[in-house]
């Protein structure tokens, strides 16, 4: 087995090789790797040359005529990342860096028009690499008025929905007075627009800025100006911003506008309500929501959240009552079975699964496999066998050849566990089950050949 060195050890050993050896190795690598070649060019170039390289690459992008499909998007994203590294290596002046980082965002149409970004690789370069570089320069730039001007210029249009990133990170590089200046300009732009779509574009940017400076009243007014009649989502958004700004009562009053029967964004609404009741010290309402969350989805996390409020001394009481309810429910819930295992109720989990074995559906392998493995590790071989049977039958029924290796593994497990099951209760013994699947799927030669190979 070849020993793998840690990063620090590899670094030390490379340094020991000497400058000439490393230089030759890099040049050899550059002969077969465009990325390595680009790295060398950046390392040996002066700051002025790296700046020029960045400008030339941006210009090349705007003249690029080829098309890049989704398979080439990751490689193209790496090229864009290296382009930004050229800028970082070439520009020290914060204002110049801010302007040039902004020019990358202004190349969005050239970039997205030539590339299929179905996997989101290119978008991530804008959202993370380019944004972080812009913030780094802009936060160090003394002329904040100029930074405001640059952000507003870039966001005059946003056909690809990516330039608003510079609005969303404004608070990371601008003081509140500069942001309010931006808001004023954006409001003027909105007032001048004749097209509703264009007007709303500016108002959405104002919403982002209002939220960043925690001006909930402005956020509320802007949302109303943008949409008029407000939806459930708007009530929740406004409540969230009021809560973030510290006005708990206003947040609560906005949430009350949402009907309790409303299911849209119920999770978000409940999340905000929890924080409101916590800040208000309303343990009764807090307990009510946490109980509801726990009952709707049993997990150690929802249990822990409930016990944190009502007291951990009530753990046994809560668990006993809920286990009773779980066992009364005739419908199989894999999450409930998993919860029983998590809290150490292995016997109850075993009984729960066996009594509902007819509902096991191997198509839902993602939730069944952990249950099977847990039952197996706890030596509950009959319960584990019933789950593995459902997984195996699902694979054979679908005839999904790529999953045959898994099916073979499940059958091997069944063979092994059968030796430890003394009482099959009302279920077919393993010999009978195996005979049945061999008859039903006798023509699936590919599966049985793989099974015979592993014997």
List the helices and strands and how they pair.
Elements: H1 7-17, H2 19-30, H3 34-44, H4 47-63, H5 73-90, H6 94-105, H7 108-114, H8 121-140, H9 144-154, H10 165-168, H11 176-192, H12 196-212, H13 216-227, H14 232-244, H15 248-255, H16 266-280, H17 283-296, H18 300-310, H19 315-328, H20 334-342, H21 346-355, H22 365-377, H23 381-398, H24 404-418, H25 430-440, H26 445-453
Helix pairs in contact: 2-3, 3-5, 4-5, 5-8, 6-8, 6-9, 9-11, 11-12, 12-13, 13-14, 14-15, 14-16, 15-16, 16-17, 17-18, 20-21, 20-22, 21-23, 22-23, 23-24, 24-26
Pfam families: DUF6880
Plain-language structure description:
The protein has 455 residues and is mainly alpha-helical. Among the domains are: 155 residues; 99 residues, no CATH class. Helix content is 72%, strand content 0%. It contains 26 helices and no strands. It is extended, with a radius of gyration of 31 Å. The two termini are 28 Å apart. The model has no long low-confidence stretch (mean pLDDT 93). It holds the Pfam family DUF6880.
Q: Could you write a compact summary of the structure shown?
A:
This protein has 26 helices and no strands.
Radius of gyration: 31 Å
Report on the biggest sheet.
none
- Count of discrete alpha- or pi-helical segments spanning 4 or more residues: 26
Question: Uncertain regions: pLDDT < 50 for 5+ in a row?
Answer: none
Structural class: mainly alpha
Mean pLDDT, to the nearest integer, reads 93
Helix content range: over 70%
What is the end-to-end distance? 28 Å
What is the element string, with H for helices and E for strands?
Answer: HHHHHHHHHHHHHHHHHHHHHHHHHH
Strand content: under 5%
């Amino acid at each position: 087995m070849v020993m793998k060195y840690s990063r620090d050890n590899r670094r030390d050993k490379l340094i020991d090789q000497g400058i000439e050896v490393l230089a030759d190795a890099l040049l050899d690598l550059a002969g077969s790797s465009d990325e390595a070649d680009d790295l060398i060019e950046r390392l040996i170039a002066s700051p002025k040359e790296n700046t020029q390289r960045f400008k030339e690459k941006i210009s090349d992008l705007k003249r690029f005529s080829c098309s890049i499909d989704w398979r080439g998007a990751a490689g193209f994203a790496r090229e864009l990342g290296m382009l930004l590294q050229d800028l970082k290596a070439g520009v020290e002046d914060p204002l110049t860096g801010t302007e040039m980082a902004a020019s990358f965002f202004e190349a969005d149409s050239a970039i997205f028009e030539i590339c299929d970004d179905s996997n989101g690789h290119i978008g991530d370069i804008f959202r993370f690499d380019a944004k972080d570089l812009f913030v780094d320069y802009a936060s160090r730039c003394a002329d904040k008025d100029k930074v405001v001007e640059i952000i507003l210029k870039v966001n005059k249009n946003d056909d690809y929905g990516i330039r608003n990133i510079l609005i969303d990170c404004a608070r990371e590089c601008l003081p509140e007075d500069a942001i309010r200046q931006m808001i004023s300009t954006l409001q003027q732009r909105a007032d001048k627009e004749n097209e509703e779509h264009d007007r709303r574009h500016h108002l959405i940017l104002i919403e982002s800025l209002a939220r960043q400076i925690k001006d909930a009243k402005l956020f509320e007014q802007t949302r109303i100006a943008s949409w008029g009649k407000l939806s459930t989502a708007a009530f929740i958004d406004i409540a969230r911003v009021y809560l973030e700004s510290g006005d708990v009562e206003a947040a609560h009053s906005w949430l009350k506008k949402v009907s309790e029967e409303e299911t849209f964004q119920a999770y978000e609404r409940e999340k905000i309500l929890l924080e409101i009741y916590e800040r208000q010290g309303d343990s009764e309402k807090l307990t009510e929501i946490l109980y509801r969350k726990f009952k709707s989805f049993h997990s150690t996390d929802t249990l822990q959240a409930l016990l944190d409020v009502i007291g951990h001394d009530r753990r046994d009481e809560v668990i006993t009552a809920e286990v009773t309810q779980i066992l009364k429910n005739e419908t199989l819930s894999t999450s409930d079975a998993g919860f029983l295992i998590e809290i150490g109720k292995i016997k109850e989990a075993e009984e729960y699964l066996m009594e509902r074995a007819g509902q096991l559906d191997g198509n839902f392998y993602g939730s069944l496999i952990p249950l099977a493995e847990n039952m197996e590790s706890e030596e509950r071989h009959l319960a584990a066998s019933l789950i593995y049977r459902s997984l195996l039958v699902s694979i054979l029924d679908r005839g999904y050849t790529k999953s045959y290796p898994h099916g073979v593994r499940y059958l091997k497990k069944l063979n092994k566990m059968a030796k430890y099951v003394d009482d099959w209760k009302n279920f077919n013994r393993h010999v009978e089950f195996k005979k049945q699947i061999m008859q039903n799927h006798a023509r699936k030669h590919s599966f049985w050949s793989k099974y015979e190979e592993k014997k």
